[in-house]
Structures are given as C-alpha cells and as structure tokens.
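BUG: 3D viewer hangs when loading the predicted structure for this chain

Environment: internal workstation, default settings.
Expected: structure renders.
Actual: progress bar stalls at 90%.

Input used:
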Amino acid sequence: MDEYVPKKLTDESIFSVDNLISALGICEADFKIIQSLETKDRYTAINLKKKNGDDRIVYDPHPLIRKIQRRIKNRIFTQIRYPKYLYGSISDPDCPRDYISCASRHCKAKTILKIDITSFFDNIDYDLVYKIFRELFFYSDEVSETLAGICTREGVVPQGAPTSSFIANLCFFDIEGGIVKGLERQNLNYTRLTDDITVSSTTQDKDLNKAKDKIISMIQNAGFRINEDKTCIESISTTAFKIHGLRINKNTPQLPRDEIKRIRAAVNNLKILSKEPNARTSFHYRKLYESVSGRVNKLARTGHPRYHKHRQDLRDILPLPSQKDIKRCLVMLSTLMRDHETLCSSPLYMKRYHRLRHRLILLQRTYKHEANKIWKTIKDLTPTKSAAEHAL
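Structure tokens produced before the viewer hung:
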C-alpha cells in the first residue's frame, strides 16, 4: 500500500517556529515582516485569459512571501515521495510528471472516465493545508498553523504561489491511494493531473460508473465539487480520444493535427518576420522566437517527425544581438565584479551570473571578440555553487 500513498521520506520533524525559521534558512526579521503584512499587501492579483476566453485570476506573492514559499517547496515538499499516479509540478528524472507522460498512461484505451474538479484551488482551504502539514509531515500544531498561514491567502490556496501545486497534489493524501489500488485490481488506469482525473480501460464499453461514484465520493467528502460539464464516460468510436489535449489512440500521445498545423504556421510566420530589416535584433523577435521554440519542443516530446525540420528552421533564424546587448553585458559584468567577494554564494548572484552567460551566447553570434573578452573575465567570477544551492 505504501507505493499508493504520499510518504514522507525522513523521520525529521519540526516542532517550533524557531526550528522552522532555521530549517528554511531565513532570518527572523524577514519572518516578522511576513507575519505583519496586511492581507492586501500579501498578494497582487493578475487577470489572465483562458483558452476559451474566460478570465483566470492568479496571485503574485509579495517578494518575501515568495521567497519563503520557495524554501518550503524546495526543503519541505521535496521530502515527499509522490505516487506514480500523480502528475504536475513533481520533479522525477526517472519518470517525467508532465501532461504528456500523464496522457501516455492511457494510450490505446477503449473506455475512459474524465472527472474535473470545479475551482480546485479556491476550495483548498486553510484547514486542509493544516491537516497536510500536521498528519502527513507530523509537524507540531504551531508549525502546521504557521505553514498553513504562509501557504494560503484569505483562507484558501492561491493559484500562482510556488507551494500551491504541491499542496494540490497532496489534497487526498489519506484516501486516494486506497481507491487507486482498488481500481488497479480491476485493470483500470488512474491518473490525476492537479484537478483533472482520468480513469481508463483497454476494454471497450467498460462499465466505469462504480469507479466514477467512488472518486466523486472521495472528492465531495474532501469538500470539493465536481464540474459536471467536464465529467463524462466515453467509449472508443470513429473519433480519437483526447486526454489533456493529446490523442491517445496510438502507442504514444500525439498532438492533434490542427495543433501541428498551427505550429508549422508559427514557424513559417517567424521565418517571414526574420527577413524584415533588424527584426532579429529586436526584443519582440526574441520573445516570439522563445514562444515558437517551446511549441516546437512539443513535437519532440511526442516523437513527431516534423520536429527536426522545424528545429533546423529555427536554427537558421536565431535571434541576433544589437549594440545595446554589448552595453548590457558590460553592466552585468561590472555588478558581478562588484559583488563577487561578498555575495558569490547567494542565490541571487548565481541567477545574475547565469543570466549573463545566457546573454553572452546571444552576443557571440555577432560580436565574438567582445563576447570572448567577457567570457575570460567571468571565469574568475564563478558563484559558490554548493552554498547557493543550499540556500534555495
């Protein structure tokens, strides 16, 4: 049963706020500032558009809150072994946990059950977050209350916070594993990608209503509601199944044909733009290039044969530097030289160092002499990597 439930990998616990501050490597002054922040100052609301045109609000934490949430993510949530049926925001080099690998679990399915949870994050409340830290991590009441307060906004988990997706993965830590084990005894595949639950069978017209009832009961007992519009049972027909936007009728997940066409069109449009005077040196072009490159990478992840052609197309129209980039690199270099002696072990110094290296790769495409001079200088400005990583 252990492999079906989230499990803490260490016996170490945290029994006081002082121990928590020490474990997270933050100073007491920063912690006091965080505790004293008014509600309106803790997060900034950002309105984003969904693909269907609806609004989605995410929250950008105050820099100090984001800092401590990242420490919680890197030092506390990494202590958990996450069951293989959970996907999204989980680091697992041996088994990637993104939406593509999640869909791959259901390839060649003949019957599928999809269940979507309504307003998932908005319904993960303070009490549930407290329960996770108290009963899964075995932290004291005081520490669990403090962590629940840091990880919630106005009593619920905010979308956009570094800790939120990890909390979402653990919402059903005490019941989900037993249900999954029972489904696997029936040769059913179960996955959950945040708030999207999928159950599949290789048997056509398999009756999944009992499985549906059990899962819905689990969700409702935990205080969540089902999105009826996105909850359904489907059997194979002339139309290929789609899970997380990917076709699963073959041995590996495939992008829909219309998405492949859109990627090809995006590459062609970028090629046309690249021919305009000075286009490749503009900031707009760089951002567009990164976006198109990311979409082309989807072809690689799904093994599509067009990937290599489109990747070569992009290599032929790489963004190019301008004179401004030389000046920017020199400014970045001077600040590293100024701070190396005192800050070389800090995470911020490491980020600035690698940001300069990344910009130098761009610079040397046109200004090789200037780039090489800076490369030689930064050899002596290397950050203290182990200390910086430890501080994350």
